[in-house]
Amino acid sequence: SMAVPTEFMTQITRSQRHLHAFILSMVWNAADADDVLQETNLVLWEKVAEFDSARPFLPWAMRFAQLQALAWLKRRRRQQERVVFDDDLSRLLADEAAR
Fold first, then answer.
1. pTM of the predicted model over 0.70
2. Is 20 exposed, middle or buried (0-12, 13-18, 19+ CB in 10 A)?
3. How many CB atoms are closer than 10 A to CB 68?
């Protein structure tokens, strides 16, 4: 495995609060923002080879944060739809049973 550049380590560490605030503005919940930030960090580590230290780190990192937050919102929306569907189904079955 390639050595992680010191510059990358410094930048990712320095960007945590900014990334967290950005993610929080999308997911609106601090605990969820923590989770999305962890996912984002994992993606950033995987992309370290693509990191170009000549370019600003934060806009590059924020693009991944945005993608992770959007994926998280989509997952949550699917879960909520499932819950609503389950509630409707339970009500329908209860109505049937009551007849």
1. yes
2. middle
3. 24
